[in-house]
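Re: that chain you flagged

S.,

Sorry for the slow reply, it's been a week of failed gels. I finally had a moment to sit down with the sequence you sent. For the record, here it is as I used it:
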Amino acid sequence: MFELIKSGGWLMLPILACSVLALAIVAERLWALQIRRVIPRHLVAQVWTWVRKGELDEQRLQQLRLSSPLGRVLAAGLANRRHAREIMKEAIEDTGRHVAVELERYLNTLGTIAAITPLLGLLGTVIGMIKVFSAITVHGVGNPGVLAGGISQALITTAAGLAIAIPSLMFYRYLRGRVDMLVVRMEQEAMKMVEVMHGERAGDQRGETGA
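Prediction finished late last night. Pasting the structure tokens below so you have them in one place:
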């Protein structure tokens, strides 16, 4: 393996660095974007229990805000629970945009790696072919051993660049889709909370009017 890397020339260093960075990003995002971490089960039900029992104070709001991305979105709406429904929705949507950006953290870097590693491999190919033609100019085509270094560099860097770019692009597409799915589900959970809270208030008001 070391001999292959050495044969690829100095361009193998940035290609290997890209591979290590891509692996770290994929591992971190797969861990961070687990559904149970982003959208804990029964969180909306727990919040509604606090609201009904009058236990939702600033301490619980802060606890909710720090618990998960969904908790942060819910806390933004609950902080405005005494305002109109539109104000709650606006606060949720504004916070949701910030949370979505955080969920997409490092994905642009992963996409950049998927885009530039084939170009680094192509650059290695070009440099290798330049060496081949330079050797032909000096030694002619009668000695294959003289040409082997340039051809080896051309093939190895291209293969290495593609070997990193292909899985990086696959994980980039997968993680972007996962973020989109999580954002939609968070929006659904937050809107469910808004509808339940304002539906309950409307019912209370109708009951008071009927009395």
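What I noticed first: The CA atoms of residues 132 and 147 lie 5 Å apart.

Talk soon,
D.
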